[in-house]
């Protein structure tokens, strides 16, 4: 337990001290929210309530925070630590691989929470966004989404040969999901055949879950089930194929 | 006493290449055993297999553990300084020592390690800002955090300047004085000669010799040697004619004189005085482990 706590702190420091990671994971989502609100005001139908736009984007960007951390940061950071021989030094200690993985996932989850809180403060100050009615449910939805997404990111980290392939795979998946999974544009407004395709993207279910809870549309069981499958399948493969060097 | 490390027929293959070929040896409690050999001889492959960091064939026991099967249990009681290990760029020596301390039930305080290894002033600096020597010392400090019974040091002084190397040698001697067994891997023969109780020479994946440095040195030659700066007035034929002298090599700026007789030095000094030549840079030639390596393999270590 002591090593787990120390490793969480160690990982957090690594994320916060790296300027690029600090910017994209903590500060950027708040900027993006403001930019997207302005853009939506220019294009959305005139009768769309401003409050709905902010809420819609906020819920979607919660998913994007997880996507950025899990797909762009975690795979590259982990495979770089492997390539540079940092993980080898840890392999030579009595620490169990499961402790390492658990601590890393926890640190990334805490980072996601910090980023989400910062984005909420921005939305609240700029657009008067109210806290969600079901904060506990939202927190649970966010945790389920983070579990699925971070395991998925770990899968890329475990399978990638080097930081380059990790970056290409992560970025590609991130971009596809950002545009198609309903972060900015509702999935229902996509062409019909694309709507079927996006059901295979984990982000689609993350956005559906977060928006459903935010707008109090009831807990979507299909999306939850899909995310649990992603969590179990990628988590199992990632843990089995984890390599220190 | 039972050996701390026992290695029997250790073999390490990478696809078709045999990097380590049926190596067997024991390391006794409290000794410093050196594994020397040229780069690519299989030293690191052998030692990392013994530590359980690489899979291998053969029977290896360290403190009674099978390093392959019981890697984590064994890791509690050994320390490792690895060749080509790295740490994240933005972590400080104090942070990394405290982090590693959390992996072990009993540890030396980070503060005392930082002091011993001359890193106290750098305790709050990022790893990326440390010099090569400071990084190396931090890795050694990390290897000692759990008061290990056996410590593995792989290319300990590579990248250090001569002064830092000597300081490091003193500290390795101190590690041993605390009763810790040391397995040292190096391609520096002077390091092995200076530090090790016994030296194993690896070449082409095979252990070709294992003995005390003194015994290994007697294998090379029973000849004594001495040398001094060449001078134009030197009468070489007269020097050659001395009964104590077997051969003279005057092809260089330094004249080398060899012989097996016990009075070689006094005979040569007397002769030079009779020729009224000053003794410039007069010294005896000691065979080194590099000569042993040359003798055993027929090739120069630095080739």
Short description:
The complex is a heterodimer of chains A (245) and B (303). Chain A is built from ten helices and no strands.
How would you describe this structure to a colleague?
The complex is a heterodimer of chains A (about 240) and B (about 300). Chain A has about 240 residues and is an all-alpha fold. Chain A is about 80% helix and about 0% strand. Chain A is built from ten helices and no strands. Chain A has helices spanning about 1-15, 20-45, 50-85, 85-90, 95-125, 135-160, 165-180, 190-195, 200-215, 220-240. The mean pLDDT of chain A is about 90. By secondary structure, chain B is an alpha/beta fold. Chain B contains eleven helices and 13 strands. Chain B has helices at about 45-50, 70-75, 95-100, 110-115, 130-145, 160-175, 190-195, 215-220, 235-240, 265-275, 290-295, and strands spanning about 5-15, 15-25, 30-35, 55-60, 80, 150-155, 180-185, 200-205, 205-210, 225-230, 245-250, 255-260, 285. In chain B, the strands form three sheets. A six-stranded mixed sheet of chain B has the order 5-6-7-3-8-9, sandwiched between helices. In chain B, strands 11-12-10-13 form a four-stranded antiparallel sheet. In chain B, a hairpin with a 4-residue loop joins strand 11 and strand 12. In chain B, helix 8 crosses helix 11. The longest helix of chain B has 16 residues, at about 160-175. The radius of gyration of chain B is 23 Å and the shape is elongated. The two termini of chain B are about 40 Å apart. The interface of A and B includes residues 14 and 86 of A.
